[in-house]
């Protein structure tokens, strides 16, 4: 019989559900809406025999890590033994080989036939952990199929989503009730496919709640169960301010009211993005919490729908920041007193004398500088650095444990990289020994490597060919030997991983641009108003370590567009063309470059809700006009990062000249345009004031 493998359409949903239904106990629970969303993202392949759908492969693509994850692979019982699973995996490999680094999946150790298939296909077992099912002797094995040689599993990066579980959730996981109408929601949280994507925590207030339990046997059983999860490590002295703020949202004086406020306060201060609960009283004010803090309070079924979004986007909340409330300046004598009480890591055993020595050591150096970031009149972060040979050394980088800790840390790192580039330094090194585990994960995402108890990142300015880069990298490899992984396939220009490795290397040494790496490039039009708010620092505010004491929060952002024409591909480099405006001198020209990380298409209401935290946009003023006042009309989101505002606007006349010289079609940029690599380089060089030789 003839068979074919194609991407599923929404009309195939019923067939997929029909195949999944009898096998749900093995495959795990999956909400109907999750299937629909996967189909919309082209994350489901189906196998057709003649006109009948006989199997499906559901997967996910995490652009942030460039990894595919297989969620379900299932063939109807009567069609097994015909090689259809292999055909579907073959199709997945062929579709994503040039975009992804490999395929990951989780499989229980007691599923011997499935284990044999993955082994036979060429997957390797990489790790194992106890399954969260009732039988703790069963292990969950993570299998990996590598597309290239740069095996990300060997770097031990942790991209798991962090979520805090309310005690009512933990209790139901521990003792699921047969007649509980939330049984499926709870089971969804501990599905095998979620297990390696999420780390669950509980608030320390949970222990206080257990202490109030008068049934000793249940109390002890719960304590033992909690050992499978991690308790939040929160500075208790910081909780009081948040608890007081929460009184207006969650009033009440009972033990339960107080406990709820404490749990939410801990969740807010943790910096983790999710608090999962079934408590209706907590859930009803979730929107008010999100408006005030970078925390989403969700039910279990909502959480599973959020996982893909959370993995692909950092826990970065620029909408919580206002340039009018934040300022940065050099440390002055009146701000010196009290810094130890704000930033001393007492839980890590740091002594005041050591902190003082670090701070005074930076101040004493001729190239040293200590920057103080304030929200209003309150100090929330300090960064101490000095220039040394080919390095910017950062022995002190601390952020107060409060709601915006992660976002401010990200911005500090972003601007330190820019500072290293502006000072023509090849390395940025953080030698502060009190980097938190969350901050360590952020540093990994920003291209840092942990070497000899310090975090190092390479920084290379300007242009380089691949051959030049091989020579230049000898300098970087002495300090960061891990960069060698990016070069293993560099000799084989025909390898599917070649350009993906080049893009990774370019971003690892950002703001480097590799001249002959064939990375897709686009010119995308944008209204000057949005350019100013999103990334154009020359038209808006200076960077953190610039000349003006204002902050611009622009590591990662999104831009909303019409779906048509749908020409943008990711990952890619982009140039932003600011359209004509009487109100902006930086218009009718290219003002900035960025990396395009993701293109998302979906209903206006749905995508705005997910990306609202970026904060520049208003539903009424921006999104509804774009959607022609139809809330479910499809719109497009471009998620981009690492923007470089141009000192000099590249005018339309200059752009047209460069297009002509490179054999490109003339264009007035009413819509996105794909351009040649050489065209991008010439425009970028002109905007950045750099010399460029093709």
Automatic annotation (TrEMBL):
Organism: Pedobacter fastidiosus
SUPFAM superfamilies, alphabetized: Acyl-CoA N-acyltransferases (Nat) (SSF55729)
Annotated PROSITE patterns: GNAT
Protein name: GNAT family N-acetyltransferase
Record domain N-acetyltransferase: where: 3-145
Top-rank lineage group of the source organism: Bacteria
InterPro entries: Acyl_CoA_acyltransferase, GNAT_dom
